[in-house]
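Researcher: Re-running this chain for the archive, since the previous output was lost when a drive failed. Same request as before.
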Amino acid sequence: MSSPSSPRRAGRHASGGASAGRGPDGVDAGRSARRPAARQGRRRAAQNPRRSVVALSLCLAAGLGGGMAATMSTEPDASAAVVAGAVEDSLGVEAADAVRNAYEAARSGNRTSPPGQTLPSGAAAQADSASGTGAGVGAGGPGALPDTLASELPAPLTSASPDTAPEKSPPPSPSPSPSASPSPAPEPGSGLLGAKIAVKQQLSGELVVANGSRPAPADGADGKVWRVQIAVEKGLPVDPEAFAEAVLATLNDPRGWNAADGSTFAWTDTERYDARVVLASPGTTDELCLPLDTISELSCGIEETAVLNFKRWATGSQAWENTARYRQYLVNHEVGHVIGYRHDLCAGEGEHATVMVQQTTTTSGCIPEPWPVPDAG
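Model: Regenerated structure tokens:
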């Protein structure tokens, strides 16, 4: 950026111009006196002083013109006027005219930029390589770097377009949290949970009522409808609703009590029930069956409640080869007591037992039978 003319800058040029034009009696004359070979020149200058003045003026004009050409981009007119005035005062009008002519010659050239600096060819190649405008790295030109060095240079940065948003890396996917092991599905026909069932002697005694309700089957309309509540002792590895489904499926089977006396069974989870089926631990079974003695091995049907011993429900009986059939017997036998049936005796060796024959520890020689009317349905 060019700055306006100032007295300080003009004074400096004036001082330099006056110093540069001290004439034949100044520094130039002293230098010539020390050189013996210049004596002949002094004699010629003494013989023709006007020619010497003109020659000196031309030299000064050439030097000052070059200087003005280098500085004319800032304050060319003021500098030329001051220098020409100083030369005219010291050397005369002709010398000042020579200075003005040199200024005009310099002014007719390029005023917008100072003379360029020419670099040696090697330096220019290095400058091009550094600035990225020449052959550069990887261009294969004379100034290219060796492949081993070029490969170690960092990759050039690329600027993103103003209209293009920089690509954002997608956020890392969260690591899946370890999920809890799924609960085991209840076994159909029993409601047991898990493959290995542990039988505990005594639990809390708190009963959990199975949620649900269902009317009695229509084909039992001619007989007694028993509203049955179903419960499981808390802490047993049993799904209460799955257990209830197993109980109702047994009670309303065509071979069940409906075929014997027309009884059918509705499911309720309220306290308005006619009969109740409870699955309990051996110790709780003993308590619920009092005053009957179940010795932690048996089940019972007392008053309106059929109490099923969980040990027998889970493990079956040695008198039965099929545990599922034993569970059907257990439900039908104990509910039979609730609806008014007493124990039967085995009719004889090899005979089919009736459902009211005690068949948990032994069948007394009879063939085990879980249904009140085996041939029905």
